[in-house]
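ERR on first pass: missing label on line 2. Operator R.T. fixed the label and resubmitted. Corrected input:
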Amino acid sequence: MAEPALAAATGLRAGVTHGRVWALGAVLAVLWVCMPALASRSIVDMLVFTALYTIAGLGVSFLLGQCGIVSLAQSVFYGIGAYSSAYCATHFGWPMPAGLLIGIGLSATIAAVVGWPVLRLSGYFLALATLALAIIAHVLFTEWDGITGGTLGVGGIPPISLFGFALNSPARFYFLVWPIAILLLWLHYNLLHSRTGFAVRAMRDAPAAARVLGVDIHALKVKVFVLSAVLGALAGSLFAHYVSFVSVDSFGVDRAINFLLLAVLGGSRTLAGPILGALFITMTPHLLGRFGDIHALLFAVLLIVSVIFLPQGFGGVAAQLWQRASGRKLEPKP
Amino acid sequence: MNSTLLLQSALAGITNGFVYALIAIGIAVIFRGTRIINAMQGEFSLIGGMVAYLVLERLGLALPLAAVGGVFAGGILGFVIELTLVRPTRKRGGGEESYLLLTLGVAFGISAAVLFIFGRDARLLAGIGGEASALFFDAAIRIHALWLMAISSLVLLLLWLFYKRTRIGQSMLAASIQEEGALTIGINVPLMRTLTFLLGGLVGGLAGVLVSPMITIHYEMGLLLTLKGFAAAILGGLTSPFGAVVGGLTLGLVESLAVLSFASGYKDVVAMTLLIVIMILMPNGMLGRRMRKGG
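pass 2 clean. output:
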């Protein structure tokens, strides 16, 4: 689960020194391994979705935190990934990697072709353009029912099997999707500390200086957009194989809004941000289920509060707690 | 394609165009006065339409009273949102994306609140002249649609007079064009911003009252209205209410012609594609005079 951030929070309560935080991390890792055995099926199912949303949300978070781009288009790529996997698996009977790669390739191509002109826009205009893309995609997903099944959807998508072992239950899928999510977070962290990461940061903080130093800002933005789309498609593809049925209801504007919310609430510039954000948006409807549709209202209120008062999101709060607990300045994530 | 069908769809396009224009006028008013793109303009209309419906159906009052109630509900909402949310964000030095996330957040919040309180049902507000239609050559047009056009045109005229002739309208413009200059000559700039939101809310509420008899009141109606209105406002260059009307009519006509050529499901695809293309190719809109930022 959210190891670093939870370690921070619990570390504060236990009053441990920094040296023991690692031990605590190990405990959390053990807890993570035991979780499927301890928790109920619906909780494990929720945690699988947390990981899926972490992957897709990481893309949105990357755009928002590192490029200052508000993207409401992640549902587009999530949908493309899911439909590619669904179509290739049910229509052609191709193995899972084929659908996954086609989905990723298609998403990356569309992101590059659409992103090239659209990313010339900035600020409000870009955000509303991405929202327009989400609406266009939703209509196309509905209308092209030869491929997507329209409102009826596509069913009977086979589960992923590894070495002849079908990942057909939440607990089994849990052990596939979480390592992928953690791996991607780690890769993302490394990317930010690479040459490209520095260029991205320079572009965000001092665009004029970056341009002078030979950073092609527009090309860089397109690259980040493509990367974000790839993450969306990957999550969508995994989602399709996990739930075995996809319909257009899963790829509406509300899904795009949830991905953005995840990035803002979690904190788009913190390492654990996407996990915390994803945990929040999957857990809240689960906990508040018996009150009807109230979670949407709560999400909106939190979005407003977070924009005004918590510009760094939950991740920022967790990082502060961590610093106080360990008494050591954490190397701030760029 | 026969001429009646063409005329009929042109009339539908013009009617829709005035709907988009009304939303676009609100967006233009708020952008003009505060340089904020208001992503909750459609929600003013949702609330305006909802309040008018409640006054009419639950309180059993007359339609004109319900309409006034709806318009003021929009205005009050705009006023309150500016004071309680936009102003604190400005004090904390929020950037451009903060305002967007903020107004989007309020839009989702209002939509979610309407869903939570009133459920998923669509409600139809009674129109002016009920369901009656007038014949225009061979094509029919609802009496209500004619009123919508007349009232929109009146609003446009009043806004023009307001900005041109009244002291407060001029102060509102000054406050956004030259903030420090406006402060120096004693204009209460924060108050002008609040009044701008009030005005935008009033226009939004009116749009809701006029639109609801045609598209039904529904918790999700706001977002698409905002986007269509935004497309219209962008077409018209974003700062001018007159441009907004030209943009709205263009959008409405293009949409209705597209419906004639493609399946009706693609109507929103055409509008949204137009929005993106216009933003990229015509950063100053069709009437293009003033520069805007970010295009």
